[in-house]
Amino acid sequence: MDWSGLSFEAFATTLVRDPSTREAFMNSMGLGIVGGFIGIMAAALVSLYVQRRRTLLAQGIDVAIKMPASISNMVIAVGILLLLGREPFNLGGTWIILLIGYLALYLPQASIASDASVAVVGKELGEASTVSGAKDWKTFFRVYAPLMLPGLVGGWALLFIRIVGT
Questions:
Q1: What is the mean pLDDT of the chain?
Q2: pTM of the predicted model, to two decimals?
Q3: Domain count of the chain?
């Protein structure tokens, strides 16, 4: 084997010097970062709502957020394209339609990760904060957010990898 022929020249030529490949790479990174953040935050808020209020509505929302996992990715993609790709939305070929599609596909995984993060915190700490007179937003930022952060970072990483790898 001729080891002198191995180099990063092809990588540098493709990613650094080719503007269309560089743009595609940056779009993928941007979608991964933004989509992962939006997805994990939405899933965390839903998980907190479901855990704090065990009503029929909360359980319905939990089922709805996990429903896309049971539907084929191709069916979801075609549905989103047909719904948002033409009049009146005209989002075909835009960054936004990709973001919506990725969120629809990977929100179930984000929901599972955030459910685990919320379960670690438990209900007692939030109830103690409420009994002490703290508002809901203060309870979230002082109690839930710090304790959920490691799990949410892991969920964000999962979403980032799924979105960028697609």
A1: 91
A2: 0.85
A3: 1
